[in-house]
Amino acid sequence: MLFYSLEFAVFYLAVFLAYRLIPAAGKKPLLLIASLWFYAAWDWRFLGLILLSSGTDFLCGRFIHGESRPGAKKAWLILSLAMNLGILGFFKYFNFFLESFHAVFPHVPEPGLKIILPVGISFFTFQSLSYTIDIYRGQVKPVPAPDFFLFVAFFPQLLSGPIVRASEFLPQLQALPRFRWDDVWEGALLFARGFCKKVLLANLLAHFADPRFARPEAYGALECLLAVYAFAFQIYWDFSGYTDMARGSALALGFRFPENFNLPYLSASPREFWRRWHMTLSTWLRDYLYKSLGGDRHGRLATLRNLFLTMALGGLWHGANWTFVIWGCYHGTLLVIQRLLPGQERQGNVPDTWRPLRIFFTFHLVCLGWVFFRAESLDMALRFLRRMASGPWDWHPALALTAGGLLVCAGWQIVSEANRARNASGLIWQGARLAVTAAGVALAFVYSTDSAPFLYFQF
User: Fold this and answer.
1) Which terminal residue of the chain, N or C, has fewer Cβ atoms less than 10 Å from its own Cβ?
2) φ and ψ at residue 367, rounded to 5 degrees
3) 142 and 214 share one domain
């Protein structure tokens, strides 16, 4: 049930109207039933999985809160960690490790077992697990079971985030937000903008990038370079488009999700990039992994090690492929190098005079990493990079048109996001915003027959 499908439109309209009309006592049960129905529409067999994962964390949270002995609290936390990471490891990485083992020992017979990856497993396990850890740290208190299950399964963010913290969502759920037409209006505009990003921009860029990543030898070096730029904006518009649609559909019901992107390609350093890209994952990794490893509390060498390990594991979280591990290690290395450079201030500030050059340099460092993220295998990534390095750099009008269109779209997006970030509220700006959104939605409907799923569904 894709966000931009007719099926979802009918589903959401029914949920919205029912939520608006029924008494307050029935609102949370309605959202919980609707969320489980939404997940079952992908594959009803995995409903038991999300209930098992969430149920374990709910019980562990209760026992942790009720225990007075530190050792017993830690034992319940370990049980929660083992359950969640065990489920994630089995469903997401069993095939990967089995294939890696068979590559090293090819004479060992392969078992016939192939595991299907449940959609959204990386997101709902992280979200559910954070609740147990927060209770262990004394940052939240247990809530009734229906509230907790709805926190994990709430359909707008269930499949690909943003990863919402218990401290952010549960207070909204316990005191149900009042209905406001302003929220409906802003939510609809946010959803429409995400719809345009996905259908009008991301899906169209995929038609240019996909064949060049699949067969780099069949294209020129310049086309492959443009394919990297195309994928950089494809994944940004695809994932930020999903986030906008998730946040918009939640906001129309009165619930506010955190921002997930903040003009990441205007970052002037790798560290700043990770403060602007997939921010809910970045902060999750910082608070629950980096700090658990020791953070920066045990000297410079340990800090660099923890930083690198966090990014390497973050890369593995994205997918069961060595390309994701290399991508995570690559970004971990960039962050370590930045920490080692002289004159780097704690907050990663950069002089204004050099900022444009650093933005340009950082963007291309990120794009180099996207080659490994996008490639189907390590061999394909290396073939792609060799093709770009070998030339020839032939130029022809079609490439000029592609490059020009990419620049126009990127420029429009940056200006639009920057104005929105400054909360531009003038009548002319609001009118232009509405007109552009309406035109974009109308045009996107023309291309909405392309039912390519969101890229982050595979994670």
Assistant:
1) N
2) -65, -40
3) no
CA distance 354 to 221: 30
In this structure, are 261 and 297 located in the same domain? yes
Are the C-beta atoms of 279 and 371 separated by less than 8 Å?
Answer: no
Q: Are residues 167 and 194 in the same domain?
A: no
Residues 307 and 383 in one domain: yes
> Do 230 and 371 share a structural domain?
yes
Please give the C-alpha separations between residue 287 and each of 163, 295, 337, in angstroms, as whole numbers. 13, 9, 22
Which of 246, 32, 279 has its CA nearest to residue 157? 246
Quote the pLDDT of residue 26.
92
Tell me, what's the pLDDT at 426?
Answer: 52
Asked if residue 5 is part of any domain, the answer here is no
Q: Could you give the number of structural domains in the chain?
A: 2
| 194 shares a domain with 153 | no
What length is written for the chain? 459
CA nearest neighbour of 162 among 190, 182, 184, 137: 190
Tell me the catalytic residues.
318
Do 177 and 138 form a contact (C-beta atoms < 8 A)? no
The pLDDT, as a whole number, for residue 160 is 84
Same domain, 297 and 155: no
Single-letter residue type at 439: A
pTM of the shown model: 0.88
Is the bond leading into 111 cis (omega within 30 degrees of zero)?
no
Domain region containing 314: 183-458
Q: Kindly compute the dihedral angle of the four CA atoms of residues 423, 427, 432, 435, in this order, to the nearest 10 degrees.
A: 110
156 shares a domain with 268: no
Please identify, among 176, 196, 231, the residue that sits at the C-terminal boundary of a domain: 176
pLDDT < 70 stretches in the chain: 101-113, 343-351, 392, 394-396, 398, 409, 412-452, 457-459
Residues 6+ apart with CB under 8 A from 13: none
Q: What is the predicted pLDDT for the residue at 347?
A: 47
C-alpha–C-alpha distance, residues 61 and 52, integer Å: 14
In terms of C-beta distances under 8 Å and separation of at least 24 residues, what long-range contacts does 2-8 make, across chains too? 2/451, 2/453, 2/454, 3/191, 3/194, 3/195, 3/198, 3/242, 3/245, 3/246, 3/249, 3/454, 4/195, 4/198, 4/199, 4/245, 4/444, 4/448, 5/451, 7/41
